[in-house]
Design goal:
Helix content is about 75%, strand content about 5%. It has helices at about 25-55, 65-90, 100-135, 140, 145-165, 185-190, 200-230, 235-270, 275-300, 300-310; strands spanning about 15-20, 95-100, 180. The longest helix has about 35 residues, at about 100-135.
Amino acid sequence: SSWFPYNTQCNDTQISEFLLLGFSEEPELQSLIFGLFLSMYLITVFGNLLIILAISSDSHLHTPTYFFLANLSFVDICFTSTTVPKMLLNIQTHSKVITYAGCISQMYFFILCAELDDLILSAMAYDRFVAICHPLQYTIIMSPQLCGLLVLVSWIISVLNSLLQTLMVLPLSFCTGMEIPHFFCELNQVLRLACSETFLNDTVMYFATVLLGGAPLAGILYSYSKIVSSIHGISSAQGKYKAFSTCASHLSVVSLFCCTGLGVYLSSVATQSSHSSTTASVMYTVVTPMLNPFIYSLRNRDIKRALKRIIGIPAM
């Protein structure tokens, strides 16, 4: 971000559009990128929709664990839909343009969904903590009221954070012919293009990342430290395996999402290279939401049974 109030290219008129440079300038790679991202997007949407459908249609899956999973699947669909369709449209129309309003909207929904993902994953960690460490009180503690409240609070925090950070971009001055070296309007990249002072924006962005990214992560780590000590106290090997297997899927998703998300921000702080940041962004904006349905369904008999019933395959 620039520390000086204006540079030589700035004028007083507000810009009307940005240019999303995407991954490659080479024309022969565009069709490959289009095909790859269209495939990943369709798998993400249909995979997560199947999870939501399976959970809503099976009364056996109307439990806190699957309530959070259905919410995660919904957010993942929104998360990917915020960035990928616009990129596919730009490739198809041979255009790199995104309007100023479109860019601001994309930033808002991207920040909203990223934070929601993080908070719902931490709620799922708490659910696993209660299930393993306090199994007898599980149904009392994880009441429908508490589950609903956790999701509602997650939405409120995410909306307020996203609204604050997006509204703070509006007063900034930008130069003409703005090129964003990314496939979507990522807040950090947009702030680097501003001609006006962005110290406050940078401060709020990194503070929000540390607080709203760090707090859920700390909650997840605390939950798993208690889970590990509780599993360690189980005498039978079968009991230990059963307890751990209920957490394996969640732990895989948390590791994938948090590590790649953290990697994006650390790489953007440490280097000025946008390529590494863009590649890491693909991991947690496209790949993780695509893999979630597979991670949660492949090792889960209940989900597999519900999916088979929806598709029409007789359950064994």
